[in-house]
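To: structure subgroup
Subject: Chain for Friday's discussion

All,

I'm putting the inputs and outputs inline so they're searchable in the archive.
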Amino acid sequence: MTTTLITGASVGIGAAFAQELASRHHNLVLVARSADKLEHLKSTLQEKYKIQVDYIVQDLTAPQAAQAVYDAVSNKKITIDLLINNAGFGDYGDFAEQDDERQIKIIQLNILALVDLTQKFLPGMRQRKSGGIINLGSTSAFQPIPYFSVYAASKAFVLSFSEALWSENQQHGVRILAVCPGPTETQFFQEAQFPNVLMDSLGKNYTSPEEVVRTALQALEQNKCNVVPGNISQKIQVNIPRFFPRQAVVEFVHKFFSI
């Protein structure tokens, strides 16, 4: 039976991945900070789908967090067949005026933890010549976003990193995918402290977490290197910047994201 490890598994897209993969009879290892939410999810999924669910309570911005997760999995003698690096967050505002510790934590979670966990689990997949890694990117990865600068840059890293690993691992039987959703029906924008007027504008194109998950899993099966879930407007959005000067793109995005 396939075993999947999901970070940021207690809510939002991570919880939707857990629900969908449990329905496909994957055993699960769930990683998040909230023990209560993880315990509830574990009990619900085990009872409904008769699968094995383990969880690890871990703040992935902490030093040596990825090593702690890897050690916990190894100590339980669990083999991870699919790694879903879902955990991440953003912060809206003028970079020069933002809390510096929060900006560093975005990088630690969105980039460093993702890279470290990938580094820990990918070699075993290559040895077995099977497995997969899904990294959560964003439509923000395709252009700079003023007032959302660190988050967008972190997702640009995720997209580039994932596509490079997709190519490196073709001959090793391991599939790598960057899934890049646009606005999704989660608490992401509230936690990122987006202004209400901007959330209302973005909310016109919301995608459900379940649709993001279904699209991601289908793309992984098709061995794509990236996929943009959602409607046609989101797919157009990520391709338009290629046809304009970068400065013009940034100036346009600035007008949308400033209030």
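Points worth raising on Friday:
The two ends are 50 Å apart (CA to CA).
The first helix runs from residue 12 to 23.

D.
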